TrEMBL record:
This is Uncharacterized protein. It comes from the Eukaryota. The lineage of its organism: Eukaryota, Viridiplantae, Streptophyta, Embryophyta, Tracheophyta. It comes from Avena sativa.
Length: 205
């Protein structure tokens, strides 16, 4: 059972789980969720072409660039910016497969609106008609709630907070590459795992 919190522009990927974070690829390729807002470009051929160009470029660059890429295409009102990033602890082949799936699903999931984001266990992809690259954005995210009953919710919350503090500190530390991971024993039979990751377009504090 998992308690997950994902927000993708400050500490971008934060996960807490009672299971190991390494997931089978079949699970990783199911989208966790999406966020869609803004102008609908369904009837705008130039804007749709810009979106498709950006998404294609993100897959190509992200698959060969260490799991991170930015891109832009179009001009004036059809100028689109994009960003893709894989989780820092997944293999290159899993990263490439996730980016391909995410960029294929995103236009359908969001019907070509001007600001679209999709989350997977292994990667994140976003495009927008405003330049968000290098800018911290905590205005949108995805929250999944742990529905498993805990004997002592306050103790569990405290234990989760401890793990999150560790991974946040690691991810923001110099030389970490923006990735933090931690594991704490909650009970003799249960571990809490945490992961935090910043997008690589953000400068360290």
């Amino acid at each position: 059972m998992m308690a997950l919190c994902r927000g993708y522009r400050g500490l971008l990927l934060v996960a807490v789980a009672l299971l190991p974070l390494a997931l089978p690829l079949s699970t990783a390729m199911d989208p966790i969720g999406s966020y869609c807002t803004g102008t609908n470009y369904q009837g705008n051929g130039e804007a749709k072409a810009s979106i498709n160009s950006v998404l294609t470029d993100l897959v190509a660059k992200g698959s060969t660039g260490g799991g991170f890429a930015t891109s832009s295409a179009g001009k004036d009102e059809t100028l689109i910016y994009g960003l893709a990033q894989c989780r820092g602890d997944v293999s290159a082949s899993d990263c490439s497969a996730c980016l391909a799936d995410a960029t294929n699903q995103l236009p359908t999931a969001c019907s070509y609106v001007s600001d679209a984001r999709i989350w997977y266990d292994y990667c994140f992809v976003r495009y927008d008609n405003t330049d968000f690259v290098g800018q911290t954005d905590t205005g949108a995210g995805l929250i999944l709630v742990n529905v498993q009953a805990e004997d002592d919710p306050k103790a569990f919350e405290k234990a989760v907070g401890k793990v999150m503090g560790k991974v946040a500190a690691q991810a923001s530390a110099s030389g970490s590459g923006g990735l933090g991971r931690a594991k704490d024993k909650y009970t003799p039979f249960v571990n809490i795992y945490g992961l935090a990751q910043c997008t690589r377009d953000l400068a360290p504090l």
